[in-house]
């Protein structure tokens, strides 16, 4: 009997599904690509045919222009070559999917990036029991345990209300995290206008076009310091310490990221208010997911693979690392 999953190959530039003649999240242009989600390290430009959710295709079109894309809905099943393919929600960002592959009686799930806690901007992760689970491990160390999101949002609001003469500038990844922070604030009853950096405008509009309500948003461009005092401003992490932020009224610098668990990372970016809010599974979510799916084998794609591999092996689950190159989840 052939080795489990022998029809799936790991290459530095991505996962190749031989009987489908297609790549998953390749980091180099390929004739046929299946894309888990729109983050730019997973969804690159320049592929031939692209199979992805409508949301992911729309994100790719904002970034790279028209795609020869085929949209696939969650739960829809499609034959690609000799492989039965379906996409199910991964709970990571709008349109993010796990890719489920079935061939010769074997079921393989490629998680892409995922998380298990609720996110008002995207569908919840759906567990699919499988033979091989190919998982990310961005926060694959027991030290990474993300706190409750609501309490982090409350800390943000508390800080905002503490000094109405200042604004709170929140650094958040432009795709996903920025819109999630806005929605989480709305869910906590914050309905004031939220200001945004121009770099997230198109993605805000894209989220709204898919029915995600973000409430009243204002561009920082046309606003005075006085108008922005007492308000929240959302910007990509790269803008936190650049000249642009001088237009803001004495900003309290915050950052929303799983990496804020590490004090040194917060200090490096001069972050006064670190908010541990992540779009990736933490250690407990990773291990809970593997327990739930009961795979025979776990393949670990990117992040901190060692501890998770060890965890699997002590539970008699075969585990290995795939050495894929080019995925960065540093901004989470
Ligand atoms: Zn991602
Ligand atoms: Zn990733």
Topology, pairings included?
Blueprint: E1 8-11, E2 14-17, E3 22-24, E4 32-34, E5 49-52, H1 54-64, E6 68-71, E7 77-80, E8 83-89, E9 97-103, E10 106-110, E11 132-137, H2 149-162, E12 168-171, H3 177-187, E13 194-196, H4 201-209, E14 217-219, H5 225-228, E15 232-235, E16 252-256, H6 263-268, E17 273-275, H7 283-293, E18 297-303, H8 305-313, E19 318-321
Parallel strand pairs: 3-4, 4-5, 5-6, 10-11, 11-18, 12-15, 12-16, 13-14, 13-15, 16-17, 18-19
Antiparallel strand pairs: 1-2, 2-3, 7-8, 8-9, 9-10
Bound molecules: zinc ion (2 copies).
Describe the overall structure.
This protein is of the alpha/beta class and 332 residues long. Helices cover 23% and strands 25% of the residues. It has eight helices and 19 strands. A seven-stranded mixed sheet has the order 7-8-9-10-11-18-19, covered by helices on one side. Strands 1-2-3-4-5-6 form a six-stranded mixed sheet. Strands 14-13-15-12-16-17 form a six-stranded parallel sheet, with helices on one face. Strand 7 and strand 8 form a beta hairpin. The longest helix is centred in the middle third of the chain and has 14 residues. The protein is globular, with a radius of gyration of 20 Å. The termini are far apart. The structure holds zinc ion (2 copies). One zinc ion (ZN) binds next to loops.
């Amino acid at each position: 009997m052939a080795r489990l999953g022998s029809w799936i190959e790991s290459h530095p530039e991505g996962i190749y599904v031989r009987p489908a003649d297609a790549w998953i999240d390749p980091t180099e242009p390929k004739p046929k690509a299946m894309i888990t989600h729109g983050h730019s390290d997973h969804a690159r430009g320049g592929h031939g045919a692209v199979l992805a959710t409508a949301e992911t295709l729309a994100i790719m079109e904002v970034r790279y222009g028209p795609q020869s894309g085929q949209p696939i809905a969650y739960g829809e099943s499609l034959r690609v070559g000799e492989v039965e393919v379906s996409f199910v929600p991964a709970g990571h960002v709008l349109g993010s999917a796990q890719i489920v592959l079935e061939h010769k009686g074997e079921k393989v799930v490629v998680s892409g990036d995922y998380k298990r806690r609720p996110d008002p901007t995207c569908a919840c992760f759906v567990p699919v029991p499988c033979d091989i689970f190919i998982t990310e491990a961005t926060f694959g160390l027991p030290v990474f345990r993300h706190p409750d999101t609501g309490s982090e949002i409350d800390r943000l609001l508390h800080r905002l209300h503490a000094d109405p003469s200042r604004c709170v500038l929140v650094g958040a990844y432009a795709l996903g995290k920025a819109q999630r922070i806005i929605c989480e604030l709305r869910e906590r009853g914050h309905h004031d206008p939220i200001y945004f950096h121009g770099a997230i405008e198109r993605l805000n509009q894209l989220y709204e076009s898919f029915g995600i309500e973000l409430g009243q948003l204002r561009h920082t461009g046309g606003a005075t310091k006085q108008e922005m005092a007492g308000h929240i401003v959302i910007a990509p992490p790269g803008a936190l310490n650049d000249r642009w932020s001088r237009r803001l009224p004495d900003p309290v610098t915050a950052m929303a990221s799983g990496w804020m668990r590490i004090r040194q990372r917060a200090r490096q970016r001069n972050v006064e208010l670190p908010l541990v809010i992540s779009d990736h599974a933490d250690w407990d979510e990773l291990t809970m997911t593997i327990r739930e799916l009961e795979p025979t084998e776990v393949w670990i794609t990117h992040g901190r693979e060692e501890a998770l591999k060890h965890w699997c092996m002590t539970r008699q689950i075969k585990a290995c690392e795939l050495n894929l190159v080019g995925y960065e989840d540093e901004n989470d």
